Amino acid sequence: MNEQEIYLPQWQELSNQRRLDIFQQIIRYFVRPLWPVTNIRPLKMQFGQTTIVSCQADLNYQTFIFVPGNLAGQFADGVKAISPFMIARTATAANLLLIGELNVVNGEVNGDQALLKPFASEIDAFLYRRRNSLDPFVKASQTEATSRLVFQETRAEHLSLYVQKDWSYVALRRQLRSVGCNLATKNQWEYSTTGDLTPFELPINQDWQTPDYYQSGYGAAFTTTKNQELLNDPGIVKANPFQIDTSSTTAVLKSINTDYDINLPTNLTPNFVYRPVINVQLD
User: In DSSP terms, which residues pair with 277 in a beta bridge?
Assistant: First the structure.
């Protein structure tokens, strides 16, 4: 892998196959070995006169997008260099930690086995209750909780497994670092959301065809829920840019570029969310 290939403009000029080959190398070098890696695929965001292309993969059952580096990235406060990184496509509530995925048909549990092991009996009990409901006409809700876990439907017959956490910002960041991740920096968050587009545009065709999320820039996805996203700086947060009028490009860009000063609570609540990042820096 040539380092210049994972920076713009060269990344954009590579063939789809070459980008995928490089992305697979990046995953081998930088992703935690205990994490299952599935569904490595291209990413394409179509804007008016511009197409952003990259790669994405499901890492421990969460989609991560590769954002190429740029020595002359465009930011609201000037031109800055930014290194390549991978960022989670969607954000997670700050009181939850994703540990894997459950197949409710065959009971198979996949994910980071070191994190899953302490919850084996709780997962078995959940499956038993679900399979032995007295009312066969009751449809399971999209989100169900037990004493320590949250089960959230993400695709047919599959549930994401989250541990409920009563933790601080420091504890969350420590956990992310222990598995090779971090919280996004202000620049990473803004860059992945704007896509370095000048002028900024909203996509006319987003990569992820879903009615539940709006994608922007390199494919960072947002609901319209009012929340605040945590960054690697504990003193500021970013508001969800799509909780406002999603048809207004100006309003969305203004929200993306606005920092909100904050004194975080001792224990993080669900109105805060976080988006793990994996930094990609070659020696």
Answer: 87, 182
Question: How far is Cα 259 from Cα 108, in angstroms, rounded to an integer?
Answer: 42
* pLDDT over 60 at 140, yes or no: no
* Dist. CA 133–CA 113, nearest whole Å: 28
Give the Cα separation of 117 and 161 in Å (integer).
12
Query: What six digits make up the tokens of 1?
Result: 């892998």
Interatomic CA distance for residues 243 and 93, integer angstroms: 16
Omega before residue 136 within 30° of 0, cis: no
> Which tokens sit at 158?
């599959």
Is the pLDDT assigned to residue 199 strictly greater than 90?
Answer: yes
Is pLDDT above 60 for 10?
yes
pTM of the model: 0.93
Q: How far is CA 12 from CA 15, 18, 159, 169, 202, in A?
A: 8, 11, 35, 36, 19
Phi, psi (deg, nearest 5) at residue 58: -90, 110
Q: What is the DSSP string of the chain?
A: --GGGGBTTHHHHS-HHHHHHHHHHHHHHHS-TTS-EEEEEEEEEE-SS-EEEEEEEEETTEEEEEE-BEEEEEETTEEEEE--EEEESS-EETTEEEEEEEETTT--EEE-HHHHGGGHHHHHHHHHHHHT-S-TTPPPPSEEE-SSEEEEEEETTEEEEEEE----HHHHHHHHHHTT-EEPPHHHHHHHHHTT-SS----SB-SS--SS-EEETTTEEE-S---EEE-SSTTEEEE-TTSS-TT-HHHHHHHHH--EE----SS--TTEEE-EEEE----
